[in-house]
Amino acid sequence: METTDEITELSSKDEPRLKPIDNPTGIKLKLAYWFTKKKLGKVITPVKVVQARMPETLSLSQKLMNIEHNLSLSDELIFYIKSYVATLNGCSFCVDIAKADAQENIDISKYKQLLNYQSSDIFDKAEKAALQYVEQA
């Protein structure tokens, strides 16, 4: 299986299919860009590419964040699930965000074992079960 660095390297060579929209015209998108920049320090590519073309996904994204906030899973396990799925899907943007978050909030040695979670003693049974579930889903 490829490592996250290999996946990032492979996908970073590709040209984007859709160019980011840097200057939205609608008020809803302008607000979304403003809030994103305020919260994250910049307007991230998914907002410029996906949500700029399909503004209805803004409310869907908000609903998903609300659901995630109310989950009974630990923040750490949610992080590992997101990171693992991003890696499996080859989303270099998602992997990069996960790596940055891992360096700030998560045990980096455990994160580095993510692709080998099944044979690693660092993951407990619940974490292994969750990762195995999302791998098969």
Structure description:
- With 137 residues, this protein is an all-alpha fold.
- The chain has two domains: 15-69, no CATH class; 72-136, no CATH class.
- It contains eight helices and no strands.
- The radius of gyration is 17 Å and the shape is elongated.
- The model has no long low-confidence stretch (mean pLDDT 83).
Provide a concise account of the structure shown.
This protein is mostly helical. It is 65% helix and 0% strand.
Low-confidence stretches: none
Morphology:
elongated
- How far apart the termini lie comes to 18 Å
- The number of helical elements comes to 8
Sheet of most strands: none
Report mean pLDDT, rounded to a whole number: 83
H and E string: HHHHHHHH
List keywords for this structure.
about 140 residues; 8 helices; mainly alpha
Strand and helix layout:
Elements: H1 4-12, H2 27-40, H3 45-51, H4 57-69, H5 75-89, H6 92-105, H7 108-112, H8 125-136
Helix pairs in contact: 1-6, 5-6, 5-8
